[in-house]
Design a protein that fits this description.
There is one protein chain. The protein has about 160 residues and is of the alpha+beta class. About 25% of the residues lie in helices and about 20% in strands. It contains four helices and nine strands; from the N terminus they run E-E-E-E-H-E-E-H-H-E-E-E-H. It has a four-stranded antiparallel beta sheet with strand order 1-2-3-4. A three-stranded antiparallel beta sheet has the order 7-8-9, with no helix packed on it. A two-stranded antiparallel sheet has the order 5-6. A hairpin with a 2-residue loop joins strand 2 and strand 3. The radius of gyration is 18 Å and the shape is globular.
Length: about 160
């Protein structure tokens, strides 16, 4: 007799569909809140490239208390714009929370912007299959240097 614990929750023998929280798999394609995870990964990487690139053009300075309240939202239309690149994904908005503070933290830990970009953006992120209790998604970089967690708006404020 086969053990009840030998298959993950939501497993269907034909592999056609399984669901775990907001994450579902249909015919081998992973979706999160009905958005294909490949689109989420690509959008995150484009957003990170833009955010880190725009920070690089600004002079470094001390972190101020107000930096922890700063939020930058940038729209990325598929066709591109005068400030954003074109891409093959649906239009999206990438929101960066406390960019100067995170730059300061990367500096404190000796993470160079070029190394960070190479790790985060040269190869697709790898999705960790177990979503968090809040429905967040977790990703790791191909070189295992960084883990990313998506967060809901109410977790950021």
């Amino acid at each position: 007799m086969e053990s009840v614990f030998s298959k993950p929750p939501g497993y269907f023998p034909d592999g056609s569909k399984q669901k775990l929280g907001y994450r579902k798999v249909e015919h081998g394609v992973v979706f999160y809140k009905n958005i294909e995870s490949a689109q989420i990964i690509g959008s995150i990487q484009i957003g990170i490239q833009h955010s880190i690139g725009s920070l690089a053009s600004k002079p470094e300075r001390d972190v101020l208390f107000n930096d922890f309240n700063r939020v930058e939202a940038v729209s990325f239309p598929g066709a591109g714009s005068h400030t954003t690149p074109g891409h093959v994904f649906d239009d999206f908005t990438f929101t960066t929370y406390t960019p100067n503070a995170f730059r300061h933290f990367r500096d404190l830990f000796g993470i160079q912007p070029d190394d960070y970009m190479l790790s985060m953006c040269t190869k697709p992120l790898i999705e960790l299959s177990n979503p968090g209790a809040s429905g967040s998604m977790f990703f790791r970089t191909h070189d295992d240097r960084f883990i990313l967690k998506t967060v809901e708006k109410n977790e950021c404020t």
